[in-house]
Amino acid sequence: MTEATTGRIEVPLPVTRVTAFEDRAELTRQTTTSLKAGLNRLVARGVTPLTHEAHLGAQTSVGRVERIRVVRRLTERGATDPDRLFALAVDLRLAEQALDVARAARGRAEQRRTAASGILGRFAERLARTAWLPDAAPARWPDGLDALEQVVDAATTTLAAARAAESEADAAARRQRALVDAAGARRPRPVCDLEIDVFADAAGPATLTVRGVVPCAMWRPSHEAHLREDARLAWTTHGTVWQATGEDWDAIELVLSTDRPGAGATLPEVVADRPALQPKVEKKRIVLEHRTEAARKDDGRDAVPGVYDGGEPRELSPPGRVSIPADGRPHKVAVGGFTTTATLARVCRPELAPHVFWRAALANEAATPILAGPVTLQRDGAWVGQGDVVYVGPGERFEQSFGSDDRWSVRCRRVRRTEERMLAKDRTHFVTEVTLTWAGAGEGEAEVGLRLPVSELRALEIKPSERWCSEGTPHPDEDGLVRLTVRLQPGELRELTVGFVLEKSGDLVLPDPW
Question: How far is Cα 34 from Cα 102, in angstroms, rounded to an integer?
Answer without folding.
Answer: 61
